[in-house]
Amino acid sequence: MKQFNRKVADLYIRTSTEEFADKYYSKTDQEKMLRRFCIIQSIRIGNVIYEDHSGNSFRRTEWTKLVSDLRGHKRHADFILFTTWDRFSTHTESAFRMYSMLLELDIQAQAIEQPLNLSVPCNKQMLAFYLSASRIENQRSEFDCIGRAKRKSGQITNTFPNWRNKRIQSKRKEFFKEKRIRHVLSQEPVICPNCGLVHIVHFLI
Question: Which residues pair with 49 in a beta bridge?
């Protein structure tokens, strides 16, 4: 793991949507934390990259431009810094591939709030945890938002409690019972003209 002293770092700041940026993790807050970290660690800031894109893949406009410039030696950086690993990526496999590719360019990606030395095998498990936990949290938040929207629009999204289900089932049973009673067969005696015996004939009401 590289030492931070007297190194150059590009700051990577990403938000998924404007709503997420305003309510949870704004670009301004990310930049403040990254700049403060660089001052404390005596790191020279190279470029500040702002991205409005999902973290599910690295097919992002600014990220693609950054990696292209680093590969073509158009810019130099020892580190790419971001606040947390979910700013880097929310897809575990893609994150490991990109991290390895950056190491081949002698560039280290690092989250200042979740620092990991990935040369230690157990830290790779921690990285996988950070990435998967963020993705699960995003999916849960999205599901909650959809549920709230449906409830506001009057759509039922939850099942009834058990006691209410039982009440509904009992009412349905009573209803069909009454319906069957209304259609019960009537019985009337009829004399058979052939044998002269009395037979009970059933008629529908």
Answer: 12
